[in-house]
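hey so u asked for the seq, here:
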Amino acid sequence: MGCTSCASGANGQPKGCKNNGTCGTDGCNKLTVFDWLSNMSLPGNEEPFMAVEVRFKNGRKHFYRNAENLSLTIGDIVATEASPGHDIGIVTLTGELVRVQMKHKKEHAKLEELPKIYRKASQKDIDVWQKVRDRENEVQKRSREIAMALGLKMKISDVEFQGDSSKVTFYYTAEERVDFRQLIKDLARAFNTRIEMKQVGFRQEAARLGGIGSCGRELCCSTWLTDFRSVNTSAARYQQLSLNPQKLAGQCGKLKCCLNYELDTYLEALEEFPKSDVKLLTEKGKASCQKIDIFKRLMWFSYEGEGMNWHELSVDRVNEIVALNKKGKKATSLEEYMDLKEIDDKALFNNVVGQDSLTRFDQPRKKRHKKRKKNRPRNNRNKNQKKNA
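ran it, structure tokens below
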């Protein structure tokens, strides 16, 4: 998504609106919500819901009460209540859809208990806000140096200034509990402001910072995913994926959230399959499963001692043999239950671009034609003149 100013610039590079996260049309923001109730009028005698959703840095959103009954629209920059002072944010949602969002996010606070919006941000508020936002990278670098000097095992992943520059929030990740009392004193002395530390998980860190995944698209957690369900390695096993941590792990270092997307479809398809450790009893011996194809509904079995010789069976055929074994009977052989398929010769081998030719890369020698000399006809004329004489 992008705003109307995100056109292409020189050399095909995106120009962008240059607002650094304060896009007025809310098109460049994370976790945006489409207001599908914006063009619908309220029923008679129904008062509008006087709460709005305000977004801050990196998708952090909170709900506020419009106590002053201001005419707010999506994209307005407002000054909100904070402790201490005030904060600056962008309105991302208004009207009845805010009530739906509060119910979806399980915000049980009543309208009177919500913090309020003071006013629309003035130009002075915006200038101060932009000035402190420009300092965040420098402050983050300096805070990491202070933490390393104290020998703390933590990573400061993000820094967020309050809109009036009265407080700085440091987001960090750590494997173990960290005693950062001395760190807070050093940071307050270095930046001369109030310090607040917030620990976030590795998934929340990736959602805040954003990035591009291995699929080539933006991270789901930073664009639309709001709930982080636990992902187990069993999800990869059900989908017949190799347990390679380099491929299964995302940028957060945990298992990718997309492993859960198709898990229900695989589990539904696997209900018809027997267990992979089932043994088929035949007169030729026991057979164990070597491979399965879930969506083609195929299983490959091999006899004990003949691991290289696989027999392809459909799931229905395997269930028939399992039913016989439960009755105490043995199947004659796996070959009798195999579905014979007629394969055309063209399917076995088809010469598309001449792979069968060993000399396809050899260039034939071109015949060189000698150029006729220009004075050749003149010599012929002299010879004819001598003969006539």
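The first strand starts at residue 51 and ends at 55. The chain has a mean pLDDT of 83.
lmk if thats what u needed
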